[in-house]
Structures are given as structure tokens and as C-alpha cells.
Amino acid sequence: xxxxxxxxxxxxxxxxxxxxxxxxxxxxxxxxxxxxxxxxxxxxxxxxxxxxxxxxxxxxxxxxxxxxxxxxxxxxxxxxxxxxxxxxxxxxxxxxxxxxxxxxxxxxxxxxxxxxxxxxxxxxxxxxxxxxxxxxxxxxxxxxxxxxxxxxxxxxxxxxxxxxxxxxxxxxxxxxxxxxxxxxxxxxxxxxxxxxxxxxxxxxxxxxxxxxxxxxxxxxxxxxxxxxxxxxxxxxxxxxxxxxxxxxxxxxxxxxxxxxxxxxxxxxxxxxxxxxxxxxxxxxxxxxxxxxxxxxxxxxxxxxxxxxxxxxxxxxxxxxxxxxxxxxxxxxxxxxxxxxxxxxxxxxxxxxxxxxxxxxxxxxxxxxxxxxxxxxxxxxxxxxxxxxxxxxxxxxxxxxxxxxxxxxxxxxxxxxxxxxxxxxxxxxxxxxxxxxxxxxxxxxxxxxxxxxxxxxxxxxxxxxxxxxxxxxxxxxxxxxxxxxxxxxxxxxxxxxxxxxxxxxxxxxxxxxxxxxxxxxxxxxxxxxxxxxxxxxxxxxxxxxxxxxxxxxxxxxxxxxxxxxxxxxxxxxxxxxxxxxxxxxxxxxxxxxxxxxxxxxxxxxxxxxxxxxxxxxxxxxxxxxxxxxxxxxxxxxxxxxxxxxxxxxxxxxxxxxxxxxxxxxxxxxxxxxxxxxxxxx
Length: 680
Prior knowledge:
- By secondary structure, this protein is mostly beta strands.
- It has seven helices and 37 strands.
- It has one domain (6-679): Maltoporin, Chain A, CATH 2.40.170.20.
């Protein structure tokens, strides 16, 4: 059966799938039917129109449910380590950060992470707490990974890349799964998902799970020993999709999750963190005479409890509420032009609770207004051009009460700024086997809320009695990221493989140095008050590329070999700044080799990685340039299907050595996990 032409496929998809769905409404799309139509995984995230990954205007990799299972991993960062261009920084048994193309740091803020269209990064430091996501790994249909600036296509925080996690829709698919695991570090984990259809009205799905374990036993400094805590996680989530009429769908979802971990701060220190997150979301998709109109609204409530008991810090808690309202209209003009216009309103409330702080009540409010759109022009059957633009206006305000002696008056936080981002990509299908992409992206990395917002006053450091003030800098400029890229995909049917290559150049201006002490300010108070600011430190350029050969033979043999090269060159002002530089923050050379074989009820998979020796990592304490030697790792999984419902698997990571020094943080230990999975 021949594949449909681009125009024919697009028209068929739009009628067959009931219109096109953007990433924010991923639950409403029948992915299974689209995969059967196209013969491979499909994405709608970049433009709102169903596309094959290689036809997208952005450099996108789709990790399928089969690949997730074959990885043997029960956490998402380890699954993402299979993607060329991503670098995984591990600072604890369950604590991870995901960097893109040479730009890596603890509490990574350059990555937009979505779960079924809802933002799951936390707005205090725009960080993703991977160990606290309310999702059953077995319920993930696919993970879409975009490398490169994509703010206009995807939204806030997408200055470096995007991870879009899509679970099975209860409207179109059954997702009844359960698993229990036991492994190293006394890891005990269990997950369950149950779904059901309500005749023709719709579907509902409920997931729940949790884990407990022990933190790595590697040696730590005396200050870090006091903040080390064993990891734990609990979550529950429910989603519903209703087919109210032939042209109207409604959806809602709710979740609650909590986690405890030892993780790295942006300063390079380790600390004990408890995270609590609740969310509620609702929306609709309406096939109207004016196009496909969609509404999406959600609320994220997060509370962070820092259990730091070291001499120079105090325990504290903060609470953040995020309210998001999104509305869009997607429509066609003729057979060649697809447009999507959208608006968004975001409101954030932040409150600090620190008993050691004098009785002020610092609080922040932030309002963000967004307008944007995309235009997909199918110039010919073999050439498409996608353009996107996004305008944001942000307003910040101090809504609480701050210290009367503060070096930064409350009025300074009544501040606003406007930004513009855009993306453009031309995709040319040269032959049935060859596709080329030329892409440009201007991404915007807004200052993290606490970079330019107030943190604390009258902080009493242990033993000294000295009062300290920690403030943000409301006059920070956003970091602008410009990405230029050439990609080429070549199918090799003779060897059942596809080769993907990418070459990129990235410019970063006005990098932000987060909460660096830059001076001491005397006040009328008898004790000195030290002030900490975030500042724009300078610029940075990155360049490199990736090449990947991936395939599967009809006999059951599968392979995935890739090589990534990334160089970052910081300006002198960035290199000299304590703890901000990205220079050599990730290895220049990264080689991956995945081999697998399925035969009868058996699955065998191995994953080997080699990282070059010429890179450094930010370190704990005052040393921010700890040299990390190169290293290699080996992971493997053996799975056996006991029957059509039960699978038993044994997986392991870091198998070639007991401990691996992979960063300036404690060594990563060898781990094994035995899992019994059920599909019912």
C-alpha cells in the first residue's frame, strides 16, 4: 500500500481525526488511528496539524511506548537518555536534570515539560521535579522531544527544548495496567492505571502509585550529610474525556503528587527537598464554522519545603499558585494554508514561609499576557513552510510586606517587560527516502520568578546573629536564545534503518547568574546586611550536531546508534562568574549504542554509553569547576511474557562498575530492578 501524498494525508487526517489538536489538548486526539494511517508515530505539538516527526518544523524525536518498555526504566529522565542531544545530570537516587546540547545545570530552567498539555515545571525556579510527576510510566503512549529554541511553537520555558509527555486517551484507547517493582537501594515501587468507557459519552482513567527507596551511600561533605534524606513518591491522577456531540468534546483532569528527595540546587549544593503539587484542568474542542476552537484552563498548586539544616542556610517553605487560561482557533484557507491563532493569560502567586525570618510577609504576583499564531503553508506536495510568532507581556508586583530597611523597595517590583519569540522552518521532501529541514528559532528564557522576585529579609544565619537580606533583581533582562539548524533524514530500506543528522549553531545573550552574592550593604541596623542579586552576566555560543542510525529487522533485532557533539563557548564575563558558566558543562563527545532482540515471549535489550573526559561540572560548596573524567555505562533488560497479561522483567543500570563518578555530585551506584507488569 502506497503512502498518501502530503495534501491527501492532511485532508484525510483532518476529517478522520475530527480536526487537528495542538499539544495543549493532546488527550482529545486519536493517535492510534493516525499511526495506522501514516504507518509511524504522529505528532501535533509543533503546528497543531498531525505530522510525522521528520515533517515537523522542529527537530523532534518520538519515543514510543514499546521503546519505553524496552528501556526497563521506571523514571522519565533515564528514558530520555536515549535521545541524542540530551544530557542527563544525576545528583541523587531519584534526582535528575535534563540539559540540551551542551547547556546543563542543576535546577534546569531551559526546558519546557508538558504532561498531556499541562505545564509540569514549577514556577519558583522554572525547574522540573522529575521524581514528582503524577504519571504511570506504563500509561505513556509517547514522549516527544524537541531540541532547539521553540518558544513560539510551544510556549513559555521552551528556550532550549521541549519534552511533551502524552498518555493514553480514555476516549479512544484502553489503558488498564499495573506493575510492582523491587530493587537496589531498597527500592519498592507500584503503579496502577484503570480506564473505562461510558458507552458513547466518553471515557475515564484513574492512575495511582508510589515508591520508596534509599539514597545513594556515596561519601558527602558534613554539611550535606545533614540534608540527605531517602527518596519517596506518592501520586494519584484522574482524567476524563467526553464526546458531547459530533463536533464538541470536553475534558478534565486532576492530580496530586508528593515527593521527598535529595537534589542539587542551582548553586551546586545538595539539599533535602519535599515537593507537594496539586492540579486541576478543564477544556473543550469545538469543530465550529470558524475552525477548530479550543479552550484549556488549569491550576497548579505547589508547595516546596526545604529541609536544609546546614550552618549557613535555614529551613523554609514556599507556595506557588499558577492559573493558566488558553484559547485558540485553527482554520484552513484553501487547500494549502493552515493557520492557528491563540491567546493565553497566566497568573502566578508566590508566598514565602520561613520561621527564622522576621515577621514580614514577602509575596509576589505575576501576570503574563500572550498573543501568537502559526502558519503552515504547504507550498508543494514536497515542500512545507511553517512560521510561528509569540508576544508576551509580563507584569511583576510585590504584594506582601517587606523589611523597612530593605535595600530594594517594594515599588521596584512593580515592573513589566515585553518579549517576542519566533520560529521558522522549511521542510523539503527530496525523495521518498530523503527529507531536509532548515530551521530558525528565537527563544525567550524569562527570568525565573525568584531571580527577579523577592526571597527573604532579616535572615538570621546560625551562630552569627547577623541579619541578612536576600533579594532578587526586578531589572533583569530575559535571556534570548537563537538557534540555527540544518537537519537531514535518510531512509535506508535495504538495511531496515533510518539515518538522522543535525547540525546546529546557538547564540545566547544576557545569561542570568542566579542569586550570586555581589556585595555587602550597610544599613541603620547594627549588624551588616548582606545582599544577594541575580544579574545578567554575558553571552554564550554553542554549536555541534548529532547523527543517529536506528532500525529494526523483521527477525526481531533492533538497533539505535548515535553520536552527539556539543561545544559551548562563554564570554569572559560568564566564565569568570561563580557558578554560572556553561563552558564544558556537558561532554563534547557522547556515544550511545542500543541493541535489542525479541523472540517469542522473550525481549533482550542493552544500552551502552560513552562520554568523553573533557568536561567539568558545577560542584558543591565553593568549588564550581570540579573536573569529571570520562566514563562509560551499561544498562540492560530481560523481559519474559508469562502469558498475554503478565510480563516479568529484570533491568539494571551502571552494570559495568559498582560506582560511577558522573558529575561533581555523589557517585551513581549500580542498580537492579525486578518488575512484574500486568495488562488486563
